[in-house]
Design brief:
- By secondary structure, the protein is of the alpha+beta class.
- Among the domains are: about 70 residues, no CATH class; about 100 residues, Band 7 domain (Tetrahydropterin Synthase, Chain A, 2-Layer Sandwich).
- It contains seven helices and eight strands; from the N terminus they run αβββββββααααβαα.
- It has a three-stranded antiparallel sheet, covered by helices on one side. It has a three-stranded antiparallel sheet with strand order 6-7-8.
- The protein is rod-shaped and about 160 Å long.
- The relative contact order is 0.07.
- The C terminus is likely disordered.
């Protein structure tokens, strides 16, 4: 009786292990017949190694040992790289580039057949370097700074045209930074300083010219006023002014005659007695 009770757990354990192994074998067999393509991916169906078709997201049936599915990421990828180029005026330019791109889902199978899954390093990175060099050589260093948005847009278009035949879409292209040689940076600073000095000199000249014009205008106005005054002086006006001066002198007289006349003969004032 004791032996029977001891063998029961062992039998149950063996049956449990056999069940788990059986389930695993069934899942393994099923996995050989089915494949799941996750979101943001396209499955490239290979039949004896040759590209047969592309599979969308979801569960798909495949033949084990005959067919294989390779997953291609079609989500937007970001690549940041540094590119070195020469400008039209032979200035060395170092640029930091940021590119957003993705593989077109409908062309994923062809992209895999031509390039493979490593298309970012095999195709995108060299294309970015080439396009940056080509467009940079068309502009001077100064234009790369002043027309930066235009240059970025031109590189975007050139890069998009270059990658389109492979089924790669360029979503965005940005020039994060431009870096030039130390001598060029110093030359730019000196040019800006010279422009500032020229603007200041021009302002000072304009200010001096304006002040001179103001003084000339004022002098002309004063001369015109004097001319008008001279034109208004008539004999009648002079006689009137003379009468006004005499009137003012009479009003200020204190009643005493001067003791000395203009001829140098003393004039003696006798006291008034009131008798005749």
């Amino acid at each position: 009786m004791a032996r029977a009770s001891e063998s029961f757990p062992r039998n149950w354990l063996r049956r449990g292990i056999a069940t788990v192994i059986g389930v695993l074998l069934v899942l393994l067999v099923l996995s050989m017949f089915f494949v799941v393509v996750p979101a943001g991916h396209v499955g490239v169906l290979l039949h004896f190694g040759a590209v047969r078709s592309s599979l969308s997201e979801g569960l798909h049936l495949k033949l084990p040992l005959v067919q294989k599915v390779v997953l291609m990421d079609v989500r937007i990828q970001k690549s940041e790289t540094e590119a070195s180029a020469a400008s039209k005026d032979l200035q060395t330019v170092k640029a930091k580039i940021a590119v957003n791109y993705h593989a077109a889902p409908e062309q994923a199978a062809r992209l895999y057949a031509q390039v493979g899954t490593g298309y970012a390093q095999t195709l995108v990175a060299p294309a970015v370097q080439e396009c940056v060099k080509a467009v940079t050589a068309q502009h001077t260093a100064e234009e790369l700074i002043t027309r930066r948005q235009e240059v970025s847009s031109k590189i975007h278009n050139v890069l998009a045209d270059k990658l389109a035949p492979y089924g790669i879409v360029v979503d965005a292209f940005n020039i994060v930074d431009f870096d030039f040689s130390q001598k060029f940076n110093e030359a730019v600073e000196e040019k800006l300083a010279a422009e500032q000095r020229a603007l200041k000199a021009k302002y000072d000249l304009e200010r001096t010219k304006t002040e001179a014009e103001q003084k000339l205008t004022q002098a002309r106005a004063e001369a015109e006023a004097l001319k008008i005054q001279r034109e208004q002086v008539t004999p009648e006006l002079l006689r009137l002014r003379e009468i006004e001066v005499q009137k003012m002198a009479v009003e200020k007289w204190d009643g005493h005659l001067p003791s000395v006349t203009g001829g140098g003969v003393p004039f003696v004032q006798l006291p008034f007695t009131g008798q005749k």
